[in-house]
Design brief:
single chain; alpha/beta; seven-stranded mixed beta sheet; 7 strands
Protein backbone atom coordinates (compact mmCIF):
# COMPACT_ATOMS: atom_id res chain seq x y z
CA UNK A 1 0.00 0.00 0.00
CA UNK A 2 1.42 3.42 -0.97
CA UNK A 3 1.86 6.34 1.41
CA UNK A 4 -1.11 8.13 -0.15
CA UNK A 5 -3.26 5.01 0.20
CA UNK A 6 -2.32 4.80 3.90
CA UNK A 7 -3.13 8.49 4.37
CA UNK A 8 -6.50 8.08 2.68
CA UNK A 9 -7.31 4.95 4.70
CA UNK A 10 -6.38 6.66 7.97
CA UNK A 11 -8.40 9.74 7.07
CA UNK A 12 -11.40 7.57 6.16
CA UNK A 13 -11.35 6.07 9.65
CA UNK A 14 -10.79 9.42 11.36
CA UNK A 15 -13.65 11.22 9.62
CA UNK A 16 -16.10 8.47 10.61
CA UNK A 17 -15.32 8.71 14.33
CA UNK A 18 -17.79 10.64 16.52
CA UNK A 19 -16.93 14.34 16.87
CA UNK A 20 -16.93 16.04 20.24
CA UNK A 21 -18.43 19.52 20.23
CA UNK A 22 -16.67 20.57 23.42
CA UNK A 23 -13.19 20.92 21.95
CA UNK A 24 -11.17 24.09 21.57
CA UNK A 25 -10.17 25.34 18.12
CA UNK A 26 -6.67 23.90 18.56
CA UNK A 27 -8.11 20.44 19.07
CA UNK A 28 -10.34 20.67 15.99
CA UNK A 29 -7.34 20.69 13.66
CA UNK A 30 -6.35 17.55 11.78
CA UNK A 31 -2.99 17.35 10.06
CA UNK A 32 -2.89 14.96 7.09
CA UNK A 33 0.87 14.36 7.08
CA UNK A 34 2.59 12.92 4.03
CA UNK A 35 6.05 13.05 2.42
CA UNK A 36 6.55 16.26 0.40
CA UNK A 37 7.29 14.30 -2.78
CA UNK A 38 3.74 12.88 -2.63
CA UNK A 39 2.12 16.33 -2.97
CA UNK A 40 0.81 15.79 -6.50
CA UNK A 41 -0.59 12.35 -5.69
CA UNK A 42 -2.38 13.68 -2.61
CA UNK A 43 -3.81 16.59 -4.60
CA UNK A 44 -5.03 14.18 -7.28
CA UNK A 45 -6.92 12.24 -4.60
CA UNK A 46 -8.69 15.27 -3.06
CA UNK A 47 -12.01 14.28 -4.70
CA UNK A 48 -11.79 10.95 -2.86
CA UNK A 49 -11.14 12.71 0.46
CA UNK A 50 -14.19 14.85 -0.23
CA UNK A 51 -16.31 11.84 -1.18
CA UNK A 52 -15.46 9.89 1.98
CA UNK A 53 -16.18 13.01 4.05
CA UNK A 54 -19.58 13.47 2.45
CA UNK A 55 -20.30 9.73 2.86
CA UNK A 56 -19.64 10.17 6.59
CA UNK A 57 -22.42 12.83 6.64
CA UNK A 58 -20.07 15.80 6.97
CA UNK A 59 -19.73 18.86 4.78
CA UNK A 60 -16.61 19.70 2.77
CA UNK A 61 -15.01 23.01 1.80
CA UNK A 62 -11.56 23.51 0.29
CA UNK A 63 -9.18 26.44 0.70
CA UNK A 64 -6.36 26.28 -1.84
CA UNK A 65 -3.39 28.51 -0.96
CA UNK A 66 -1.34 27.56 -4.02
CA UNK A 67 -1.81 30.90 -5.79
CA UNK A 68 -1.21 33.05 -2.72
CA UNK A 69 2.50 33.76 -3.35
CA UNK A 70 2.24 34.40 -7.12
CA UNK A 71 -0.76 36.69 -6.60
CA UNK A 72 1.07 38.52 -3.82
CA UNK A 73 4.15 39.03 -5.99
CA UNK A 74 2.10 40.13 -9.00
CA UNK A 75 0.39 42.82 -6.91
CA UNK A 76 3.56 43.89 -5.04
CA UNK A 77 4.32 47.58 -5.74
CA UNK A 78 8.05 46.85 -5.99
CA UNK A 79 7.81 43.53 -7.85
CA UNK A 80 10.50 44.42 -10.41
CA UNK A 81 12.97 45.13 -7.62
CA UNK A 82 11.89 41.97 -5.82
CA UNK A 83 12.57 39.90 -8.93
CA UNK A 84 16.01 41.50 -9.28
CA UNK A 85 16.92 40.97 -5.62
CA UNK A 86 14.55 38.31 -4.19
CA UNK A 87 16.58 37.97 -0.98
CA UNK A 88 15.15 41.33 0.15
CA UNK A 89 11.52 40.19 -0.03
CA UNK A 90 9.81 40.53 3.33
CA UNK A 91 6.53 38.83 2.52
CA UNK A 92 6.00 36.79 5.67
CA UNK A 93 3.69 39.04 7.63
CA UNK A 94 1.49 40.11 4.71
CA UNK A 95 1.26 36.56 3.36
CA UNK A 96 0.47 35.13 6.79
CA UNK A 97 -2.32 37.65 7.25
CA UNK A 98 -3.79 36.93 3.81
CA UNK A 99 -3.54 33.15 4.26
CA UNK A 100 -5.14 33.34 7.70
CA UNK A 101 -7.91 35.55 6.32
CA UNK A 102 -8.66 33.03 3.56
CA UNK A 103 -8.82 30.15 6.05
CA UNK A 104 -10.96 32.16 8.50
CA UNK A 105 -13.34 33.12 5.67
CA UNK A 106 -13.76 29.48 4.70
CA UNK A 107 -14.31 28.44 8.33
CA UNK A 108 -16.88 31.21 8.80
CA UNK A 109 -18.77 30.55 5.57
CA UNK A 110 -22.39 29.46 5.78
CA UNK A 111 -21.63 25.93 4.54
CA UNK A 112 -18.87 25.42 7.15
CA UNK A 113 -20.97 24.12 10.00
CA UNK A 114 -20.01 22.29 13.19
CA UNK A 115 -20.18 19.03 11.21
CA UNK A 116 -18.06 20.19 8.27
CA UNK A 117 -14.46 19.76 7.24
CA UNK A 118 -12.54 22.73 5.86
CA UNK A 119 -9.57 21.34 3.93
CA UNK A 120 -6.47 23.51 3.46
CA UNK A 121 -4.28 22.64 0.47
CA UNK A 122 -1.33 24.28 -1.23
CA UNK A 123 0.92 24.72 1.79
CA UNK A 124 3.96 23.55 -0.18
CA UNK A 125 3.80 26.74 -2.24
CA UNK A 126 4.19 28.77 0.96
CA UNK A 127 7.40 27.07 2.02
CA UNK A 128 10.05 29.59 3.06
CA UNK A 129 7.49 32.42 3.09
CA UNK A 130 5.54 31.61 6.24
CA UNK A 131 5.15 29.18 9.11
CA UNK A 132 2.23 26.78 9.16
CA UNK A 133 1.99 27.08 12.94
CA UNK A 134 1.35 30.83 12.59
CA UNK A 135 -1.38 30.20 10.04
CA UNK A 136 -3.15 27.66 12.26
CA UNK A 137 -2.89 29.82 15.38
CA UNK A 138 -4.35 32.79 13.52
CA UNK A 139 -7.31 30.77 12.23
CA UNK A 140 -8.08 28.39 15.11
CA UNK A 141 -10.74 30.59 16.77
CA UNK A 142 -12.90 30.46 13.63
CA UNK A 143 -13.01 26.63 13.39
CA UNK A 144 -16.46 25.28 14.15
CA UNK A 145 -16.15 21.81 12.60
CA UNK A 146 -12.74 20.38 11.68
CA UNK A 147 -9.83 21.99 9.86
CA UNK A 148 -8.00 19.41 7.74
CA UNK A 149 -4.52 20.67 6.87
CA UNK A 150 -2.81 18.76 4.08
CA UNK A 151 0.73 18.94 5.45
CA UNK A 152 3.73 17.98 3.33
CA UNK A 153 6.30 17.10 5.93
CA UNK A 154 6.73 14.70 8.78
CA UNK A 155 5.34 13.97 12.20
CA UNK A 156 7.37 12.28 14.92
CA UNK A 157 7.17 12.50 18.69
CA UNK A 158 4.36 15.08 18.67
CA UNK A 159 6.46 17.41 16.49
CA UNK A 160 5.52 18.49 12.97
CA UNK A 161 8.23 19.47 10.47
CA UNK A 162 7.08 21.38 7.39
CA UNK A 163 8.65 20.12 4.14
CA UNK A 164 11.14 18.13 6.26
CA UNK A 165 13.27 21.27 6.55
CA UNK A 166 11.83 23.68 9.07
CA UNK A 167 12.39 23.42 12.77
CA UNK A 168 9.56 21.36 14.14
CA UNK A 169 6.66 22.69 16.15
CA UNK A 170 4.57 20.93 18.75
CA UNK A 171 0.88 21.44 18.11
CA UNK A 172 -2.31 20.03 19.61
CA UNK A 173 -3.63 18.90 16.22
CA UNK A 174 -4.66 15.32 15.53
CA UNK A 175 -2.09 13.68 13.26
CA UNK A 176 -3.35 11.59 10.36
CA UNK A 177 -0.23 10.07 8.89
CA UNK A 178 0.66 8.26 5.71
CA UNK A 179 2.74 5.63 7.51
CA UNK A 180 1.03 4.60 10.71
CA UNK A 181 -2.47 3.32 11.19
CA UNK A 182 -3.27 4.79 14.57
CA UNK A 183 -6.29 6.97 15.21
CA UNK A 184 -6.60 9.75 17.76
CA UNK A 185 -10.09 10.95 18.63
Amino acid sequence: MSAVDHLFSNYSRQVRLPWSSSMSGKQRVWFAVYPPWEERRVRARLPQFEAVTLAASHGWTTVDLTRLVPDFLAAHPYREQVFQQPQHLRAGNALEKRAAALVREACSAEEATASSVVAVTGLASLFDFMRVSSLIEAAEDSISGRLLVFFPGEYAGNVYRFMDARDGFNYMAVPITSTESFINP
